[in-house]
Amino acid sequence: MTTVIKRSKIAAAVVGVMALTGVSVAAASNTSLSQLQSEHMQTARAQAASQERIDSLFEQSRELLADYRQVVAQYEALKLYNDHVQRLIDDQNAQLESLQRQIDGIEETRQGVVPLMYKMIDALDEFVQLDIPIHREQRERRVERLREIMTRSDVTDSEKFRQIVEAYQIEMDYGVGLVAYQGTLQYGGQDIAVDYFHMGRVAFMAQSLDMRNAWLWDNDNREWLRVEDSFLSPLTQAIRMSRRQTAYDVVRLPIFAAESAE
After folding, report:
1. Which domain holds residue 198?
2. Separation between Cα atoms, residue 20 and residue 14, nearest integer Å
């Protein structure tokens, strides 16, 4: 009887151990499944975030490509214009060299040079009156000084000719580069303090010192035209570039299209 009881207790103990082992295995299985599900969700979220970054980088690359193509087109247009201006400058330099050769023989050709100088001054005066009004008063005073020295006996003909050629060179320089200077604009019966700006002779503009208004010179009609507010910020940037206050960059400014020759 004692042996049977002992065997029954041992059997019960074994069953109990097996039951506890089954519970542990089941608990471990549930824990592993939850961990796998959590890791799967984290992986999915990471993949979604990576895809968002890829989409963002792709969109940025498309925008950069569009900007690059626009800059290239603007560069090509400016290069064509600069090549055209360079040809004009080369031709003007050739004319100056020809005039310099005439100066070398000034004593022998004085009778022909003096009338030539008067014609050059008249031509310069006419050009100033017809050109865009960059430094208008200063240029008019320069022409008057040339007329004055032509009547002075204490100035040699060679010096007179040198000053005339120098005036022509100054006029050439107005057609190159970005230049800004302050002055007074007469508009609507008022005198307005402005920053004048010209890009060679392509565009001549003015901006009020408070940067709230801007104007573009219409040389055909000889008048100032008010420009849209969208050009205020680009004009301010162009003025700063001309004064070396910021790096050179492409800006959008209004210009009059060149008329085709008949």
Report:
1. 178-242
2. 10
State the Cα torsion 258-234-59-50 to the nearest 10°: 160
Note whether 220 and 160 are same-domain residues. no
Beta strands in the chain (DSSP E): 178-187, 190-199, 203-208, 214-218, 223-226
User: Tens digits of per-residue pLDDT, 24-65?
Assistant: 444 455 667 788 777 778 888 888 888 888 888 888 888 888
Q: Is residue 4 part of a domain?
A: no
Q: Please tell me the total count of domains within the chain.
A: 2
Give the residue ranges of the chain where pLDDT is below 70: 1-31, 103, 105-109, 257-262
Are 207 and 197 in contact, with CB atoms under 8 Å apart?
yes
In terms of C-beta density within 10 A (0-12 exposed, 13-18 middle, 19 or more buried), how is residue 214 classed? buried
Please give the C-alpha separations between residue 172 and each of 3, 168, 175, 244, 251, in angstroms, as whole numbers.
128, 6, 6, 22, 24
Q: Alpha-carbon distance 196 to 183, whole Å?
A: 7
- Whether residue 184 is contained in a domain is answered as yes
131 within 8 A of 142, measured Cβ to Cβ: no
Q: How many Cβ atoms sit within 10 Å of the Cβ of residue 32?
A: 10
Under 8 Å between Cβ of 258 and 243: no
